[in-house]
Structure formats: C-alpha cells, structure tokens
TrEMBL record, chains A, B, C, D:
Protein purpose: Catalyzes the phosphorylation of D-fructose 6-phosphate to fructose 1,6-bisphosphate by ATP, the first committing step of glycolysis.
Keyword Transferase in record: yes
Class of the enzyme per the UniProt entry, highest EC level: transferase
Secretion signal, residue range per the UniProt entry: none
Family in the record: Belongs to the phosphofructokinase type A (PFKA) family.
Protein name: 6-phosphofructokinase
Residue ranges constituting the Phosphofructokinase domain according to the UniProt record: 1-262
CC cofactor: Mg(2+)
UniProt key word Calcium: no
Cellular component per GO, a single term: 6-phosphofructokinase complex
InterPro entries, sorted: ATP_PFK, ATP_PFK_prok-type, Phosphofructokinase_dom, PKF_sf
Pathway the protein contributes to: Carbohydrate degradation; glycolysis; D-glyceraldehyde 3-phosphate and glycerone phosphate from D-glucose: step 3/4
Amino acid sequence: MNAAVRAVAQAAFGKGWEVAAVESGYAGLLEGRFRSVDSGALSGWMSRGGTMLGTERSDDFATDEGKSRAVEAAREAGVEGLVVVGGGGSLAGALALDERGLPVAGIPATIDNDVAGTDMSIGVDTALNTAVGIIDRIRDTASSHHRAHVVEVFGRDNGYLAVMSALAGGADAVLTPEFETKPEDIVRLLEESYEGGKPHFVVVVSEGASPTADELCGHINDAGESYAADLTAAGHIQSGGGPTAFDRILAGRLGAAAVKALADGDAGKMMGLQGNVIERVPLEEIVGEDRPLDPGLYELAGELARIPR
Amino acid sequence: MNAAVRAVAQAAFGKGWEVAAVESGYAGLLEGRFRSVDSGALSGWMSRGGTMLGTERSDDFATDEGKSRAVEAAREAGVEGLVVVGGGGSLAGALALDERGLPVAGIPATIDNDVAGTDMSIGVDTALNTAVGIIDRIRDTASSHHRAHVVEVFGRDNGYLAVMSALAGGADAVLTPEFETKPEDIVRLLEESYEGGKPHFVVVVSEGASPTADELCGHINDAGESYAADLTAAGHIQSGGGPTAFDRILAGRLGAAAVKALADGDAGKMMGLQGNVIERVPLEEIVGEDRPLDPGLYELAGELARIPR
Amino acid sequence: MNAAVRAVAQAAFGKGWEVAAVESGYAGLLEGRFRSVDSGALSGWMSRGGTMLGTERSDDFATDEGKSRAVEAAREAGVEGLVVVGGGGSLAGALALDERGLPVAGIPATIDNDVAGTDMSIGVDTALNTAVGIIDRIRDTASSHHRAHVVEVFGRDNGYLAVMSALAGGADAVLTPEFETKPEDIVRLLEESYEGGKPHFVVVVSEGASPTADELCGHINDAGESYAADLTAAGHIQSGGGPTAFDRILAGRLGAAAVKALADGDAGKMMGLQGNVIERVPLEEIVGEDRPLDPGLYELAGELARIPR
Amino acid sequence: MNAAVRAVAQAAFGKGWEVAAVESGYAGLLEGRFRSVDSGALSGWMSRGGTMLGTERSDDFATDEGKSRAVEAAREAGVEGLVVVGGGGSLAGALALDERGLPVAGIPATIDNDVAGTDMSIGVDTALNTAVGIIDRIRDTASSHHRAHVVEVFGRDNGYLAVMSALAGGADAVLTPEFETKPEDIVRLLEESYEGGKPHFVVVVSEGASPTADELCGHINDAGESYAADLTAAGHIQSGGGPTAFDRILAGRLGAAAVKALADGDAGKMMGLQGNVIERVPLEEIVGEDRPLDPGLYELAGELARIPR
C-alpha cells in the first residue's frame, strides 16, 4: 500500500496539488489526523511492506452520522478530493463519502483478491509469492510416507490465493470455498500419491473452504494409523514483506490513474486493472459484489497436479 | 523454463502420451539426445532457476540441411509433436521445423520480453524482481552528493525490462532503445535532484540504449569534478534464481495450452498471453517481429520520477 | 545437510576414496540402499534446502539386533568408514555403530541447536534467518492496539532458536524452556508497551516453553476484552529453504574434518565448532547430553527489549 | 549498522542515559548535526539495510584541528561519551577523539572484514550471503562450454569475503590479495573442468587480487578462440539489503558491550568478537593493523573445489 500512497503523491505533485496523508484510515479521518506530505517525505516507501500509515477499526465511521462527520472533517481541513486505498470494506466507505459530496477515487488493495471490477488488487502478488515460498520450504523438509502437509492460506470467501498458490507451488490438491471437495477424496489421493512413489504431499486450503484446514487434518489423522497430517497456517506471514515488482508497478499505475480521475472531475470510481488497461469502475458497481474465481485456473491446478510429481 | 517443461509433461501425461525431453536445445535434437521423462523425473523442477535441460548454440541447425536433419532425427525417435520453449531465435527454429512437417507448438521464454504476440514471456517477471532487488540494494548503500548510480539491465533492443525496473525500483530516470535521452539532461536532472535534497540518484539503462550505461557514466564523470557515477551491470545475475509465482503460473498455463494445441492438431502456433487469456498465435506472425514498448508505461515512469523522492 | 554430504564427498575424492551415499538414513543402511557418488553427481547440492538423500524412521535400527545388522550390511557393501550427519538421535546411532566396530565420524545437523560439544549445528543459521524473516513480516502487518503476535519457533527442549530469533527479530519478549516466565508478566508488558505508544508487540515462544505459545495466547485473550493474541507457528517453514552462507561453510568445514578424522583412524568422534576451530569430540561425551543455553544471550534479549521500540 | 545504533540506544536507555544520533558521521559531528533519539524513534531500524544516519567524507575532520573541533562540538552539545560504528578509517578517527579527551567506544562495521581484533565486523555476514546469492544465480544461467564466469567481490586488501564466498558458493577457484595465482593456472583448471564434464566454471576474485577480475577475463579470452569469460562485478549490490540474523545479533551484542564499556569508564576500546565472547580491544592496538586471512579456509576452498562438481 505504501507504494500506492507514494504514487498518488507523486502524481498529485505533478498536478501542482498539495498532499496530505490520513493516518489510521477512517478513524484518523474522523479525528483529523492528516500528515502533510512533501517530496522528501516518501523516500523509501516504495520498498516497504505493510502499511506505514497504519490502520484502525472505527465504530464511529460505521454509522451514518460518522460518515457525515468524516466528510465535514475533510472539508474543514481543506480536502478537495480523497484517494482511498483498501479492500471491499474500505471501498464501501469510499462510496459512502462520495455520495455525501466528497470526491473520492478508490484503489483496490487486499491480499484476498476479492474486490470485483479488477483482475488484481495491490498486495496479491506479494502474498502469493510469500505463500509459494512457504510451500517450497515445506516441501523441502524431510518427508516420510503417508504424511500430508496441509497449508492454510488467506482469501476469506475467495479461493484465488489458494488456487494460484497451489498452481505455483505445485501442490497436489487445493480446497476452495467455491468448489466442493470431500475429505475422503483427499485421503485417497494421498494414498495413491505415496503408492506412486512421490516423496511428499501438499494440500493448499483456502481459509474459507469446507472442510477447513483443521478439519482436513483431522480426517487424515483419523484415516488410519499410518497417516499423519501437519498443519501450517501461513496467517499473517502473508501480509508482510517487501512488495514484488508487479505490486509496485500496479500501485504506480492505479495511483496515477486515481489522481487523473479526480483531476478530470470523474469521482466515485475505483481504478481497476482489466487485462492490460486501467479502467474507471463505478464504486457502486463493485461494492458488495463478489469477484468470481476463474474455473479454468482451478481446473488447471487439478490437471497439473493429477499425475504424481 | 523448468516449470514450463514440467507443465508440458504433466499435461501430456494427462493425455496418456509418452514424453521425452530434448537436452541442449536444437543441438541436442540433431544428436538425438532425448531424455525419457516419467512422472517421478520432474520432482522439484517447479522451483528451480535456470534451464535444467541446458542450452547450446548449434551451427549445424542454422543451415537448411540441419533443420531437415533435425526433423528426421525427431521422426526416427518416434516424436509426433514438439514443444519449443524459448526466445525469438528458438521460435524461428520452431517455425522452420513445423514448415518441414514436424508439428510444433511454441512457448515464449526470454527475460528480454521482446517476443511479439504475447504480453509476457516466461522469465520476465523473475528477472524484473531480481533487477528491482538490485536497485533496492544499491539505493540502500551510503550515498553522497553528486554521485549517480547507473544500473544496466538486459533487454537487447527492447526497453521493457528497463522501464518496468525503473517504475518498480523508483528510479530517477530510465534510458531505453525506443526513446532518445540526451546525457546532458540526465546530468541536469542529477543536479536538480541533489539540490532538492534527495539522498540518492539512480538511473536504469537498457543494454540497447544510446548512450549506453558506460557512455552515460563517462558523461556524468566528465560533467564536473563534483560528479561521479557508479556503474552496476546486472548482467547474468538477472538470468538465474528461483522463478516467481507469476512465472510458474504462466509456465503452467502456456505448457498446458501447448499440449492442447498439439492434441487439437493445431500446430505451428505460439501460445501467447493476451490480457487474461492464452491465445494461439501463428508462429509466422511473430517470427522476426518486434514487440513494441508501451509508451504509457514509459511516460508513467517519467511522471512518477519527476518529483524528487 | 546436502552441503555437508557434498563436502564429505569432495574431501573423500581428494583422498582417492570411493564414495557412496546412504538413502533414507539408518533405514536405508539396513536395507543396503547405497547410491554411488561420483564427481558429477553432486552438482547443485550446495544450494538446495532439505535433505536430498531423504530420511526415514527405522524401528528395526532401534533394536540392538538392528544395529548389528546395519554394521554387517555396511561391511558387506565394502564400507570402511561412515560419516553420519544428523541430530542427537542420529549421533547416538553413530556411537552405537562405532562401538560395534564400524568406524564412524559424526557431523551435527539439526535446527534445534541442541547437540552438545559444538557451538552450532548445521541448519541452525538457516532456520534462524527464516524465523527472523517471519517475525519481520508479522511486524509489517497492520497493527492495532492491545494485539499481541505470538510466534512459536522450533527448538524442542532448547531455547536457543527462540532467544536468537527474539534478539535478531527485535521481539518484545521471549519464552524458553530454560527460564520461567509468568503469563501475567507478558500481559503487563503488552499493556505497558501499547501505553508507551509502540505499534506492535511480538513474543517469541520456544516449542518446549511453559506456558506454550497456545497457552500464552489463551492467557492474553482472557486478560480483558480489549486484548487479542494472534498465533503463528513457524513450524516446518523453518526446516526448508536454501542454506545460508554460514551453514554452507560450516558444512564444508565439518565435512572435510570428518573425512580427515576417518583418514587419521580417529573414529568415534563428532566434529564440533568451538569458537573458531573444529574440534573432534568423542561421541560418548555428547550423546545424551544437553547443550546449555547461554544465559548472557537470554539476558541481552531482555535488555534490548526492555525499552519500547 | 542501523541495528547497532538501535542496540546502543536501547542499552543506553537501560542505563537511564539520554541518547542522540550523529548524522553523516564525522562531518555531521563537526557541524553539530545531532538527532535526539527516544524510544519510539528506532522502530523498524532492526531490519533496514544501509545506513539510515548517512555517511559523508569530511576533509575538515582529516586535520588535527578538525579533530579538536569535533571534540569541542561534542562537549558543547553535552556529549559525555561517543560510540563510533564503522571500518578502519572510522575507528582511527575514534582513537583520535578518545586521545583528545572524549570517551569513545568503537564497534567494527565493514563488509570487507579487514578490521583487526575481531573475528567478524558487522555487515560481513549480510554481504557474504548477497555474494553467494549472486554466485548461485550466475551458476543457474544456461552454460556453454569453455565459458568462465568471473565474479568480483569487495574486500579491499583482504581476501576474506572472496574466500568465504567461494567456499559457500562452491566456486571452482578464488583469487585473493594474500595468495598468488597465475592466470594460466586458472585457464588450465577451466580446461580440465569442462573436459571433466562440468557444466559451469565460476571464479571468485577479490577486488585487491592480482590479476584483477578484469585482467583475468582478458587472459581467459586470449587463451584461445573457444574460451570466453563473463565478468560480474558484485559492487554496491553487496553493501545493501536487509541484515542477516547473525549481523543483527552481532550488532546487538557489540552495541550493548560498547555502552557497558563507557558506563564502566573503560573508553578507548573497540568491542571485538573473539570466538564466542565479546572482548574490549584497545583501539591503538587495531588502528593501522591488518586482519590476516586464515590460510586454513583458503586451503579448504581449494580442497572442496579441486574435484569437478
């Protein structure tokens, strides 16, 4: 996200605008926590992981009255336009502010890749590479027969990160919220895999899948005394780390596009990557919408995993 | 490339085909150096950098007679279809073999991203992340006034890798073969940058640019006694290293698509990523063609660099 | 471990010896699974994580009769000397084989760093860097008040990895098996830390500590409704990955020393790093012994953590 | 170095001291550029590469008069003790300040590992791992016969980094300032290596070696038309990047020791790692001294490289 903030600031400087960063998200907006940003303040932001501006839940902002107060706070501070960088919840807030008269441009940023209207959100490529690094390391470990390594990755209700991790990590199976998998099929696959001479067996499970990673481990452990499952929850490891080149470039493109949209008086839009171009997507079209998982990628993960490796 | 070979093999196993890998490229094809590949042989290929099958220049294959002999060698070995993974030169060879009656499918793989008909070739994302890692490290080093760090990256006649490295690395300037830059403008930018209080100045230069990285360093060093330029040639560091998630997934998609094209009897095509879909592009349309650099990305790199960081 | 196997082979070739690698540890030794190793076979071993020879538990080898059969199997295969690379259990096996007349040299390799007689075992530095990378990433994630990140690292009964991870990761607290910590003290530290304005709070817990990482999370979550604890178990992520320079060099030094010890007829010894030199330590002195944790390092971790960062 | 500054500050806070950081080294000291450091100011320093305080050459400080003025500047600012983190030149400056009455403690930090009185300086382990990563990547690249990859690493007059990089990178040869190597011997080794079937040949050359990396490439290229040498200068890539666990821990230990030495009234000493303990070494014993290269490690690099890999 830091790279997106930097790009927004650079593009805004290019238009001769003054720039302030809001600390701690909508909570900070309500409290008027603006940090003035000049050309020197962003040194090193490009390569930093996490969110240097901080984030904080705000119960106040969740109310109608809170949202109106946020618009007032922004106006009092002289804010003429706001760029919101975040996931579905943040973009819903952005829409609410825009509807209340504050010109807003949205930039999708979430490792779950569950924001509609864009092929990729900022942070997904970094999280994906981290998850794949974890799978690689787990597969490196000394393996023994009839042991399954179950890796749980983020994604909320969206299996994107799980499917892509499985594809890139060469996993033997993947469980997502979108497609049903019976645990007994995984146990059978594990059995066949070791009979086929494979030295390891890795299943990637999306956090929203059913069975969950935990439940799948239980099924495997119960399947017979010669079976054992190791659970690794990638958890917050996925959210940190320096951003990949793709994420930095995406942040740069979306950030510059957001400033251009505000300059054009075209507020209330989210900048979305669609194929190779950046499109302005009305926030009202994407708020509350799900981003569907491409079934072709799910099938490909199965196709490339089908034969023991 | 290893991930592409693995994907081709997995997809071919899925069709019940027998698979052999050709060692050392066309040189190995001429000499009949086939390595039989079964399901166990590819363990670990996913995460390995470089080219495990090796590459070798072949003067023999460069002749018409050599190409005809290669087709014969393939037929004698019972080869019914060939998947060629490589850059422009390799794909030109693939077209020649296909024209001589050996069904061939092509997969673009080169870190220069100069193959027409595809948005990305396998290897580009990995090389890009390596180049950005190099830029990050160079910017970390203790900086002193009026010193410019010049980083030369690969790309042959194509500035893609340079522009994307500059964008992702937050470079202050980028020189490519496609756009002219006067060295005195770089010196002036360097001057302004340090007067603006920036602690470092990084220029990315594509290997095909004019002035070259070497020449640019000369210009900077000659510009006055208070100027100094450090040259870092990323060179072969860019070509190695474990592949990123994007490259592994692209390899998986292109590899499976190549097998499907051969299975459909649709030979003579290169699999290309266009937007989000894999297209079959006639080899004759892309051989000898240049892949143009998106001027929007070049301009964006300039826009985000304009203001000192 | 692969780097150690490579070093042993290289040093043995230097003495003109023939070399065979035993697959799957003592299980493979009993079954005579020797893999002949020549100079070309080890290409690329240096940089590979995990154990390319595999490991396997052997119930047979656990018996006296099994150990005698292993010595016979080795002799029948013409083995004149054996180098065992592994942790405490493997080195106990090595001693048993040596006592039964097979000359053995031991090399300590375990990420737990719990082998006596050596400052460092092979694998510790790599695991430590992985654990620190995990802590860095977790600290990068957006933080909110009164939330504690609890990271569980390996180490069995030894707190070395936990203390060193905490020191290098800049953790706020560390729990080890060797030193008692009351969970209420951690809760109080967490409270003070956020009152002091720190944006994150990270505790490293050794797997053998009491309270365990799980129990500590429970304590924190029970401490009040404004508290929450996130558990990240580094688990098998720590065991994989390409080895660090230190581990490769240590492997090279210990491997060469083991071959030299066998060549000198000085069997029954483990090669140990003590300060800057490699010593030959009698296996009987280290088998069953614990490696004590340096209390100075534990205190230093506390000293550097005491003040909010 | 950032980790060392953080450790000094943490340890000093522990003694109830006030802490200020000097920007841009001795140049900043002369100009009184002190930055007050409190407990919140050091967040994130642990994991940052480079030198966040900056460095700058100072011609003024090089004079006797300049050194006296620096002591005055420190006194005026209320400085009662100074910790200097740096290489040989910085530590010579530290001795001069101490002799002029300002209590100083020294901490060795240089990637060249050429400071006497300590086994390791801060930064060496990080630079070593970077150099090894470069060698790994270069070896990954497609190789062809009779091509030598020559990698130049830092080290000034000290071959430590070259020898350790060669050992850890599995290089085929290493050239250092301390030991003479004839270029024709390298050419012969290259020849033998490819005749022995090795797919690549890597030579590590210390920047102070004779022949230099450049000269060696010339020799190889002149040796016959079938030979070619690729030069990769690791250069400033080595100086940046996030610090390894070892470097962070060493920084923590040396930083705490420096504060303790000042608290004990034992100024004029450099903190040195000797074996496993931190010793206080009189600055006058190490200034101007060379740190000898361990010939055993040089021989080991040769022993492990002797046989083709």
